[in-house]
Amino acid sequence: MWNFRLFPEQASSFAGRYDFTFWFEVAICLFFTFFVSLITVVLAIRYRRGSKVNRVHPPTHSTILELVWSGVPFVILMAMFAVSAVLFVEQYSSPADAAVIDVVGKQWMWKAQHSAGKKEINELHVPLGQATRLHMISQDVIHSFFIPAFRVKQDVLPGRYTELWFRPTKVGRFRIFCTEYCGTDHSAMGGYVEVLSPADYERWLESGTTGVTQIEEGKKLFTQYHCAGCHNENATVRAPRLEGVYGKPVPIQHGEQVEFVKADDRYIRDSILLPKSQVVAGYQPLMPSYEGQINEEDLLKITAYIKSLALKSEALPTYVPEYDVDKDMPGARGSEAEYDVDKGLKPGREAGEKK
Questions:
Q1: Which candidate, 79, 158, 181, 191, has a CA 20 to 30 Å from the CA of 280?
Q2: Contact residues for 170 (Cβ-Cβ < 8 A; gap 6+)
Q3: Start-end ranges of CATH 1.10.760.10 in the chain?
Q4: For the chain, where are the alpha helices, taking DSSP H only?
């Protein structure tokens, strides 16, 4: 018989719910298409020219009818919205315990690296039942990472990190596609996701590795590119310390103004490639740009290492030791002590107000 599927098999926790949402909305569309078409045909036949029907005093208004044709579609559309919105929010809210795999899109291949150090090209091994989050960026042009069996797809952009997550529910081998035209060999840019049982995945993860983790590789690159010469306690050049910085608010000097930004992956990447675009308050813009010198794979490794330094200190490093942000920087938008990086200044404080 034909080995042909109208729809891909369901192999993730999202797949069944996406298919339900799709068929739910298709069924509603088909119902109203049939219903409206049927009424149109019946009325066209009944009131055709020459038919013997009473055309005296045709109705011109019906409050009940107007309420029905407004209220029923509204309720149905809200149901469609609710079903879709719940799924959308869940898709963009990965679990805290999700395993993170870095993925770089490049003409014309997918390159993945696991935190344990294992690397893959056009292959992605993941454990059954474990939430997996892909942290992705493009080396060149816009790509789009699509796994039909998982019902997940996400654009992969140059200069910007994007993410998607999934929880595999079936052991097997499933196709990966690039669904954004990216050049001559776009159609050849694909691969496979290999879902293994947890025990098989651990064995695979330990096989054929050098024993060097992504963090350790990042540390070597950190030294290779002379980052350690400035960003450690024994440095002769005065530069911000990196211990504990990840995830914390960092004061950035913009002329006479100081703004706090969150030290996330984007901030670290921009600080390496475009250091003069976000100079830490109290420091001189001395750092050279590494744009064109460090590729995206190595940037991810260095970022992983800097993230690991956050574990060495729970407190925010002293970026501006000689400065009181309120006293010496009157244009500042609040010091770190009264700044919520997600919400701005804490209530009751104005920019530049004395403590």
A1: 158
A2: 9, 10, 11, 128, 149, 195
A3: 215-345
A4: 15-46, 63-91, 198-206, 214-224, 265-273, 296-309, 325-328
Backbone φ and ψ for 219, nearest 5 degrees, come out as -65, -40
Distance CA(311)–CA(313), nearest Å, equals 6
**How many Å separate Cα 56 from the centre of its chain?**
63
Pair 131, 201: CB distance under 8 Å = no
CB-based contact 156:167 (threshold 8 Å): no
Residue 280 β-bridge partners:
252
- Residue 195: CB atoms within 10 A of its CB come to 27
pLDDT in tens, the chain (355 residues): 466 777 889 999 999 999 999 999 999 999 999 999 999 999 899 888 888 888 787 778 889 989 998 999 999 999 999 999 999 999 989 999 999 999 999 999 999 999 888 899 999 999 999 999 999 999 999 999 999 999 999 999 999 999 999 999 999 999 999 999 999 999 999 999 999 999 999 999 888 766 788 999 999 999 899 888 888 777 777 788 888 888 889 998 888 888 898 999 999 999 999 988 888 988 888 888 999 899 999 999 999 999 988 776 554 444 443 444 444 444 444 444 443 434 443 433 333 343 3
The closest of 110, 116, 117 to 147, measured between CA atoms, is: 110
The CATH architecture assigned to 215-345 reads: Orthogonal Bundle (1.10)
Do 310 and 267 form a contact (C-beta atoms < 8 A)?
A: no
Rounded to two decimals, the pTM is 0.78
DSSP 168: B
Task: Domain 1-44+94-210: give its CATH architecture.
Answer: Sandwich (2.60)
What is the sign, positive or negative, of the torsion defined by CA atoms of 288, 291, 296, 298? negative
